[in-house]
Amino acid sequence: MIEPHIQVYSNVDALSRAAAKRFAALALEAVTARGRFTVALSGGGTPQGLYQRLAHHPFRDQLPWAQTHFFWGDERSVPPTDPESNFHQAQLALFDHIAVPPENLHRVKGEWEPRAAANDYASQLCQFASPDLAWPRFDLVLLGLGRDGHTASLFPGPIDSGDPCPSPVLAVTADYQGRPARRVTLTPLVLNSARHVFFLVAGADKAEALKATLAGPLEPERWPAQRILLDQGTLTWLVDEAAATALHAALS
Ligand code: 6PG
Q1: Exposure of 198 by Cβ count < 10 A (0-12 exposed, 13-18 middle, 19+ buried)?
Q2: Is the pTM for the entire model greater than 0.90?
């Protein structure tokens, strides 16, 4: 298994700046090596600073957007115009500002019933399948970490369809922040096949989940981000000081 690399930044702005540089390097490397860059975006607030940086000079003008294919690690079961939609949030922060062809945006159809959307998304992944897989070996997967330890839409508890999950995409209904959250998510089957995974984690409210995930006992049902294990490529945690406070103590 690949050891995770943990990089601590003074604050979320410094984290976002570093993430943008790393994103750009991987995009140029992928397009040079394979003619395209496949990336699965994360939802939530933490990556918005990264998306906004990519939407401005120099990245806006220098990255190979025509060869970049955007997917999502998960999506809420809402229409693409809904403020809660991960696609909508990326559209406002990034796609409205860069020359990415609309056909390069491979969104989960949040407006559909989750199981139908999951099946459709699995078919979209198939069209970009890498050899020996039914999905792309993503050049980059961006992930966040919830206060409860979830990542993408892999929430605490067993994975309904079996553990390890045999499907590349799942429709899930989770109870999150006191209300049911209907979502579609990539599963560890896909996430763990990526060439590079970035976790972006910022804020004091993530400190306990970060410590438990990275320095606590292996309990993937309680801390689902522990399901993200790569046997090749790189796994990098880009975290800010506020989120790393409990981790420092645990690792020292
Ligand atoms: C989503 C994300 C989710 C997110 C975490 C952290 O759809 O919301 O995929 O997994 O990464 O909830 O969210 P914040 O970055 O807003 O803390």
Answers
A1: buried
A2: yes
Count the neighbouring beta carbons within 10 Å of the beta carbon of residue 137.
18
Residue 232's Cβ-count burial label (10 Å; 0-12, 13-18, 19+) is: exposed
pLDDT, tens digit, 9 for 90 and up, residues 190-210: 999 999 999 999 999 999 999
Please indicate whether residue 16, judged by its CB atom, sits closer than 6 Å to ligand 1: no
User: From the CB of 151, is ligand 1 less than 6 Å away?
Assistant: yes
Q: How far is the CA of 147 from the centre of ligand 1 (A)?
A: 9
Q: Give strand ranges (E) for the chain.
A: 5-9, 37-41, 68-72, 74-76, 140-143, 169-176, 179-186, 196-201, 234-240
Is the shortest distance between the CB of 164 and ligand 1 below 6 Å?
no
Instruction: Tell me how crowded residue 123 is: count the other CB atoms within 10 A of its CB.
Output: 11
Assess whether the C-beta atom of 149 lies below 6 angstroms from ligand 1: no
Count of C-beta atoms within a 10 Å radius of residue 120? 15
Q: Which atom of ligand 1 is nearest to the CA of 203?
A: 17
Q: Report d(CA 110, CA 98) in Å as an integer.
A: 23
Question: Cβ–Cβ contacts within 10 Å for residue 174, how many?
Answer: 19
CA distance 152 to 75: 8
- The rounded Å distance from CA 131 to ligand 1 centre is 30
DSSP state, residue 79: -
Question: What is the side-by-side order of every strand in the sheet holding 179-186?
Answer: 74-76, 179-186, 169-176
pLDDT digits (tens, 9 = 90+) for 55-106: 999 999 999 999 999 999 999 999 999 999 999 999 999 999 999 999 999 9
